[in-house]
Design a protein that fits this description.
- The structure is a single chain.
- This protein is of the alpha/beta class.
- The protein is 39% helix and 22% strand.
- The chain is built from 15 helices and 23 strands.
- The chain has helices spanning 40-58, 62-78, 80-91, 95-115, 152-164, 178-189, 204-213, 226-236, 261-273, 293-304, 325-340, 376-379, 395-403, 418-427, 460-465, and strands spanning 2-4, 6-8, 11-13, 20-24, 31-36, 122-125, 129-137, 140-144, 167-171, 197-199, 219-223, 242-246, 251-255, 283-289, 344-347, 366-369, 386-392, 407-408, 410-414, 432-435, 450-451, 454-455, 468-476.
- The protein has a 7-stranded mixed beta sheet with strand order 15-16-17-14-13-19-20, sandwiched between helices. It has a 6-stranded mixed beta sheet with strand order 10-9-8-11-12-22, with helices on both faces.
- It is globular.
- The model has no long low-confidence stretch (mean pLDDT 98).
- The structure holds nicotinamide-adenine-dinucleotide (NAD).
- The site of nicotinamide-adenine-dinucleotide has 32 residues, from helix 7 and helix 8.
- Nicotinamide-adenine-dinucleotide binds next to helix 7 and helix 8.
Length: 477
């Protein structure tokens, strides 16, 4: 069985008896790995190692840092098959998607290898002075990540942190730490100084909390639930730490009467159901113009019923199991709540039938009609494969409904009218707006949330800036 160790100061930490957890495959509940369970003390040791390595790594020229990051990308690609398999075993997603996650993480390393070289200073001439503005690495960072994209979301932090000259301690999700740990190991193997990259495992409330509280960490980069983000922000306030928070979402998807309906239905289905809806920018609620509602709904249902569901290791599977029993229960509760309040079940709503599904946390892609804002599926983050549909009469009405949420991560609009597209894009309250596309992630563009969906931006040059402090040097002349 695979063993997942912590990495502190360039070394594998041996297992401690009594502090070993088992990771189970969500497709069949079989054990797949043993993982070390770290403590607050381990978190402290890892932070000290990162602090020790900081002068070495931050003092390394950015061109040399770029070489290490490119080598890390090469190693991640070389090991992608092997790590992707671990990712499928611990998280459930189909192997092809796990592999894509590894390859896109390698791309993130390559991107920031080059972006780090573009961290220039500025020069300002005054009447009796000259000012130089430097951007310097913020210091030791704590990188805390969730289980839905455990490698990608860590890469979004590891790569800019290292490119900026920071060192870090990563805390992968407790129940899906395997692939993330192997990803950091590949990065370490690329030639980082010992202690520049560390991994500690363990419960968020213990190990994660220590990483946030300790005065050694100067920046917390977190992706996870909004409630956890609030606790982290409050704790980080004690030392006025820099925080970037990528939190929950409840993304609206508006289909106008003039939209390309087959494209809209295909996009909605893919973004509502892929990764079993366990995506922060998943399509959570669909508002469709009443003239085209019937046709759009029919097409969406047809697409929902076309997905092949199964163990992610099987070839040609589109959707694996959900990550955990709790996630599936929450999804079931949200569907029951909607049906109890008058929603119509158009597809799915339960587990698939068949022996192969009995032991895993499988759930059918679910389409609900007649949804409204009294229902939890329209207000809360279900984080499951559910697409509720509500009809609208005017764009103003659709926009008001879309913005009636405490979340603001992503919003989508499908229309063939440029003016409608621009008005909707301007008016929607979210960090990323997809116009006739179902994805707002682009490595070169900023990603992050408005309102309770987060603070700060990842990716692009914005991602690098969040690991830099600004310094003004004033020279008297
Ligand atoms: P979570 O908040 O429960 O856990 C995330 C990480 O935080 C884990 O590593 C956990 O161990 C750690 N943690 C928990 N309590 C902590 C504490 N008190 N101090 C420090 N660390 C702590 O989230 P999850 O259930 O793993 O992930 C699902 C959530 O992540 C969803 O809400 C989803 O929307 C969100 N998410 C957001 C984005 C985004 O970019 N906005 C992307 C993916 C997932």
């Amino acid at each position: 069985m695979h063993q997942s160790h912590m990495l502190i100061e360039g070394a594998i930490v041996p297992f401690v008896p009594g502090r070993i957890d088992t990771i189970y495959n969500p497709a069949n509940q079989e054990p797949v790995a043993e993982v070390a369970v770290g403590t607050r003390q381990d978190a402290g040791l890892a932070l000290q190692a990162a602090r020790k390595a900081f002068p070495v790594w931050s003092g390394t020229p950015s061109s040399k840092r770029a070489e290490v990051l490119h080598e890390a990308a090469r190693l991640v690609r070389e090991r992608a098959e092997e790590i992707a398999r671990l990712l499928t075993l611990e998280q459930g997603k189909p192997l092809k998607n796990a592999k894509m996650e590894l390859l896109s993480s390698a791309d993130v390393l390559d991107y920031y290898a080059e972006e780090g070289k573009r961290n220039f200073g500025e020069w300002i001439s005054g009447a009796h002075s000259r000012s130089i503005v430097l951007r310097q690495p913020v210091g030791v960072c704590a990188l805390i990540t969730p289980w839905n994209y455990p490698v990608d979301l860590l890469a979004w932090k590891v790569a800019p942190a290292l490119a900026a000259g920071c060192t870090f301690v990563a805390k992968p999700p407790s129940k899906a730490p395997l692939a993330a740990t192997e990803f950091v190991r590949a990065v370490c193997d690329a030639g980082l100084p010992a202690g520049a990259a560390n991994v500690v495992h363990g419960p968020g409330g213990e190990v994660g909390a220590k990483l946030v509280e300790s005065p050694i960490s100067r920046k917390i980069a977190f992706t996870g639930e909004t409630a956890t983000g609030k606790a982290i922000m409050a704790s980080a306030a004690t030392h006025i730490k820099r925080v970037s928070l990528e939190l929950g979402g409840q993304s609206p998807f508006i289909v106008c009467a003039d939209a390309d309906l087959p494209a809209a239905a295909a996009s909605a289905a893919q973004r509502a159901f892929s990764n079993m809806g366990q995506i922060c920018i998943s399509v959570n609620r669909i508002y469709v113009a009443e003239q085209v509602a019937e046709e759009f709904t029919e097409q969406l249902v047809r697409r929902a019923e076309r997905f092949k569901i199964g163990d992610g290791l099987q070839p040609d599977v589109d959707l694996g199991p959900m990550f955990s029993r709790e996630q599936r229960e929450k999804t079931r509760e949200h569907v029951a709540d909607a049906l109890g309040k008058g929603a119509e079940l158009l597809s799915g709503g339960s587990e698939p039938e068949g022996e192969e599904y009995e032991k895993g946390y499988f759930f059918l892609p679910t389409v609900l009609g007649e949804a409204d804002h009294r229902m939890r599926v329209m207000r809360e983050e279900t984080f499951g494969p559910v697409a509720p549909i509500m009809r609208f009469k005017t764009l103003e009405e659709a926009m008001a409904l879309a913005n009636d949420s405490e979340y603001g991560l992503a919003a989508y609009v499908f229309t063939s009218n440029l003016k409608t597209a621009l008005l909707a894009a301007e008016g929607l309250e979210a960090g990323g707006i997809g116009v006739n596309v179902n994805n707002v992630v682009d490595l070169q563009a900023p990603f992050g949330g408005w309102k309770e969906s987060g603070l700060g931006r990842e990716l692009g040059h914005w991602g690098l800036e969040s690991y830099l402090e600004t310094k003004h040097i004033r020279l008297g002349m």
